[in-house]
Sequence to fold (336 residues):
Amino acid sequence: MRALSSLLALSLLALPVLVQGPAARAQAPAPRAQAVVEASVVTLGDIFENAGPRADTTLGPAPAPGRRFVVEAAQLAAIARDYGLAWRPMAGDERVVVERPGRAMRREEVLEPLRLELVALGADPELELDIPGFQPPNLPAGAPDARIAVDGALWDGATRRFSATLVVVAEGMPTFNQRVSGRAVAMRDVVVAARALRAGEMVMPADVTVTRHAVDRAAANAAEDADLVVGQRLRRAVAAGQALAAADVVAVPVIPRDSIVQLTHQAPGLTLIAQARALEDGFRGRTVLVLNLGTGSVVQAEVLGPGRARAIGTAPANSLPPAIAARVNRREQASR
Fold:
């Protein structure tokens, strides 16, 4: 009986050594499913959990900011063997995705120093730079603003072609060097539809937007100022993103003929308001002939908005269009 008790005690003492419990397994090295690194290098501890005293050992360079790479099972096994970690692949599909956070630089941020360099070489400051396939580099997530330099810039004024080397230096990343080439393009403003518009629809300010287009890619008759189409009625349907021309709209009078108009007379230090009657349709920003109801005179006025106009001067009777002169005469005869 005493011998059996001694054997049982020995067995209990040996149990922690022969059978690993959850706590022991938790301390075993194991590859991480995903490794997010902030530094410019990848360490053993980035790849393996519980990597032990050599966790800070550098394995190699980290991905470029904003990029990632994958460490497959065979590579993981080789790393574990080289650094004395008690781990080996079980299923063969183990992998670690190593990624490095980054923030993308704005294209304009990188190209502005190049633009200034080309202007110094004789390029027009209003030209836009067309560089096919150019992608700005990513900076490390926590890095301060980068320093950008331009080296070896060449400019051909006849063809407007250029080439240069862009150099981007930022903390935590290798110096970015890229030779770029392209063409400087003359640009112009173009009014485009912000949504699909139907024929006969009134164009409102929110219906259009002004964007920059290369001169050789924009329609020659495209409107450059939104005021040329806003408040007008469309002659045809226009798709979203399509350019609008002045010919695509028909003007809508903001002062209909025979309507009452608030007529403003301005002089130095004096402003008078009178009532007038429109003798013709009035369009915003244009002139219209109105009859001052107080004086009976025909006045040429600038249309300011619906029902509002500013007197420019009295229109001589012999300068009136025949149809309007006849209407004025009829009004004068009816008032006698």
About this structure: The two ends are 144 Å apart (CA to CA). The first helix runs from residue 2 to 18. The mean pLDDT is 84. The helical segments are 2-18, 22-26, 44-47, 73-82, 107-120, 322-335.
